[in-house]
């Protein structure tokens, strides 16, 4: 029988996408719903109001008390002026996890190791269990095979071998977190190879143990199903990058001087984030939606041809696995 599921979009126009239905074969013990607070691409070192955005998210998480929170990379560099920002993140009383983004190293001359130490991140890639689920955090910033220019976006041999062994050791439905996408052209350079590793780890029902892969990096909002795995893009909390060609000074001189790259963005008026609810027994996932607007001028107003695809939105989705 063909397995199917549907995504319901509550914030923007709908349309159905065929996805796999629940299949038995996982080890389910607790059968309790799990809630995860997720934020991606705050970019404290680019956006001028990153502290206020994170403060809004954390105040909400304190009230709602998810099982854990996770930031999906491009968070904040270990600069003294950013300590108050990190202190806000560290206020959460439950587990709070980090994913390394490309801007969390090299920018302002900092290294991956310096950022990890500042975040108190013990391993650059790791896994953990929570309730009925297994979670894997990958580091997509291994050195690319030469020749290569720009930020590295690769998963090397050591990490690939670790990933294979980690997947072999679990019988729980598994979710992967990584900064850069495994399916987009501008994502992980060897993404197809990594997807093959995820797809090859089979449950007792002969389907991939991995049910979903969540990423940030691309500052956009969509879901793709590839060979039974949901690839979910989490939009940036803060902005859409537009570069020097479309830069525009929106803010007071002292802000523009302190954050010179903010003029190369189209900032979101309100912070975007989501809460993911997981139900292993029912084979259901719910991604909470949030929608805001751009701080003027909008991408369309500054003449970007693809402005209609640049949406300050995280779409609400009901998914099954």
From TrEMBL:
Pfam families linked to this entry: Metallophos (PF00149)
- Domain named Calcineurin-like phosphoesterase is located at 34-220
* InterPro entries (alphabetical): Calcineurin-like_PHP, Metallo-depent_PP-like, STPP_CPPED1
Which PANTHER family does the protein's record reference? METALLOPHOSPHOESTERASE, CALCINEURIN SUPERFAMILY (PTHR43143), SERINE_THREONINE-PROTEIN PHOSPHATASE CPPED1 (PTHR43143:SF1)
- What is this protein identified as? Metallophosphoesterase
């Amino acid at each position: 029988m063909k397995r199917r599921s549907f995504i319901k979009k509550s914030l923007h126009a709908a349309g159905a996408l065929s996805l796999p239905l629940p299949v038995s074969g996982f080890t389910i013990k607790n059968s309790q719903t799990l809630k995860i607070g997720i934020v991606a691409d705050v970019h404290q070192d680019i956006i001028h109001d990153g502290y206020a955005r994170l403060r809004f998210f954390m105040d909400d998480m304190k009230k709602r008390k998810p099982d854990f929170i996770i930031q999906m990379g491009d968070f904040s560099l270990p600069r003294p002026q950013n300590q108050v920002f990190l202190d806000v993140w560290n206020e959460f009383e439950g587990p709070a996890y980090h994913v390394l983004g490309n801007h969390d190293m090299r920018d302002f001359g900092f290294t991956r190791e310096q950022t990890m130490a500042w975040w108190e991140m013990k391993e650059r890639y790791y896994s953990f269990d929570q309730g009925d689920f297994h979670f894997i955090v990958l580091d997509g910033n291994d050195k690319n095979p030469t020749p290569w220019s720009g930020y590295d976006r690769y998963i090397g041999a050591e990490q690939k071998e670790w990933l294979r062994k980690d997947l072999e050791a679990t019988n729980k439905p598994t979710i992967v977190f990584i900064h850069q996408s495994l399916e987009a052209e501008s994502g992980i350079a060897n993404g197809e190879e990594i997807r093959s590793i995820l797809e090859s780890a089979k449950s007792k029902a002969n389907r991939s143990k991995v049910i979903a892969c969540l990423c940030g990096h691309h500052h956009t909002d969509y879901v793709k199903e590839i060979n039974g795995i949901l690839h979910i893009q989490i939009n940036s909390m803060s902005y859409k990058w537009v570069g020097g060609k479309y830069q525009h000074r929106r803010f007071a001189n002292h802000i523009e001087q302190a954050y010179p790259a903010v003029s190369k963005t189209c900032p979101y008026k309100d912070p975007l984030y989501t809460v993911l609810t997981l139900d292993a027994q029912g084979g259901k996932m719910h991604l909470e939606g949030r929608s805001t607007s751009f701080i003027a001028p909008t991408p369309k107003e500054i003449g970007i041809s693809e402005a209609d695809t640049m949406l300050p939105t995280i779409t609400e989705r009901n998914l099954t696995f």
